[in-house]
Write a structure and sequence with these properties.
Blueprint lengths: L1 H4 L1 E8 L6 E8 L2 E4 L9 E2 H8 L3 E2 L6 E3 L4 E3 L2 E8 L3 E7 L1 E6 L2 E6 L4 E2 L5 E2 L15 E11 L7 E7 L6 E5 L2 E5 L9 E8 L9 H7 L23 H8 L3
Parallel strand pairs: 3-9, 4-12
Antiparallel strand pairs: 1-2, 1-8, 5-8, 6-7, 9-18, 10-11, 13-14, 14-15, 14-18, 15-16, 16-17
């Protein structure tokens, strides 16, 4: 799962007062995409959601960042960017809104249709890290989880899935299964999108190859058997005693 289902995104924070910057990398197994505004009631292109994901946002007081220079919490500018993406890509469309009104939380759902490609989803314009030409970030859809209902706490889930052997699409609704198509899954209820890299495979979102090219052993020079299991040596009792001993 770690090898083929996790990628890295880069988080960039900037202090609005002194300009101090903080950059760190975080592992992700799915990408939560905000829904872009619908133009004149038309369907929303998935690219618009990806661009909105990479837009900068001003943190509010509830999520203030502590600036080491200013020695206080500030409403920093935060920007997210994709550094590397895994072989199995899961996109989460943020359809549910939570708003504080009248001392309570009002939950609602965005029913706008998001148009996403069935084949050849190209993420190259959104990747900041190195791109492997033998395994480019271009994806084919193989599954969609759909939600019907007004809130996240109620409703019904179905799935539209492409069979990996015959490439045919099927609709799953509880115990009922029927033929379908990838295009039929492009609805206002599409909630989770499951993509697979169209060409090649990479470990750790391509970072394993980068490490090997730079002469770094991705496994840390530990022994790995033919099944891919890595032997981890436990610390000896003498080593543990040395750590506990006072200088």
């Amino acid at each position: 799962v770690v090898d083929h289902c996790q990628g890295l995104h880069r988080s960039h924070l900037t202090c609005p007062v002194c300009g101090r910057e903080s950059i760190k990398f975080d592992v992700f197994s799915s990408i939560s995409l905000p829904l872009a505004a619908s133009k004149e009631g038309n369907a929303i292109p998935l690219d618009d959601c990806l661009e909105k994901f990479t837009e900068g946002e001003q943190l509010d007081e509830n999520n203030a960042w502590y600036c080491e220079n200013c020695k206080r919490h500030v409403c920093a500018l935060k920007m997210l960017a994709l550094w590397s993406v895994p072989d199995i890509l899961i996109l989460h469309l943020k359809r549910f809104k939570y708003e504080h009104k009248g001392g309570g939380v009002v939950r609602s759902k965005i029913e706008d249709k998001v148009v996403f490609p069935i084949d050849q989803l190209d993420l190259r314009p959104y990747i900041l890290g190195p791109i492997d030409d033998e395994a480019p970030p271009i994806y084919n859809l193989f599954g969609v989880s759909e939600h019907t209902g007004s809130t996240a706490n109620s409703g019904h889930y179905t799935a539209t899935v492409r069979n990996s052997k015959d490439a045919n699409w099927y609709k799953y609704n509880d115990s009922h299964v029927g033929s379908s198509s990838g295009e039929a899954s492009v609805t206002g209820g599409a909630y989770l999108l499951f993509y697979k890299r169209a060409k090649g495979m990479t470990k750790w979102g391509g970072m394993a190859r980068v490490m090997q090219e730079r002469g770094i052993d991705p496994r840390g020079a530990l022994n790995t058997d033919q099944d891919g299991f890595t032997q981890v040596k436990s610390k000896s009792k003498s080593q543990k005693k040395k750590k506990k001993a006072k200088p």
